[in-house]
Amino acid sequence: SKSEDELTVSQASIDAIKARARVADGDLKVGLDDYREKWRVPWSGATVALGLVGWCVSFVGVAAIGFPLALSRAHIDPSAFTPVEQ
Fold it and tell me: How far is 47 from 77, CA to CA, in rounded Å?
């Protein structure tokens, strides 16, 4: 069983979280000030940029190379498709 101090700390923590999130009558009201602070993350802007470039290159690679290769291996001619099949 928990002591009275532990329960008080737990209730204080819950109250602080509710105050921080500005929860009132079940509606979540979040202020923009909560998001204007710089976030501390273990990656840099260069990592994010490289990830986005990698995603774009792989997306274009599948569309421009992968899909046409799959069609040719399956002996499917896309020019023979009807408008409904396209």
Answer: 40
Tokens 């995603």 sit at which residue?
55
CA–CA distance, 40 with 32 (Å, rounded to integer)? 17
Compute φ and ψ for 23, nearest 5 degrees.
Answer: -85, 125
Q: Please answer whether residues 55 and 48 qualify as being in contact, where contact means their C-beta atoms are separated by less than 8 angstroms.
A: no
**Rounded-to-integer distance, Cα 39 and Cα 33, Å:** 13
Contact between residue 22 and residue 29 where contact means Cβ atoms under 8 Å apart: yes
- pLDDT tens, N- to C-terminus, the chain (86 residues): 555 555 555 777 777 776 666 544 455 555 666 677 777 888 898 999 999 999 999 999 999 999 999 999 999 988 888 888 87
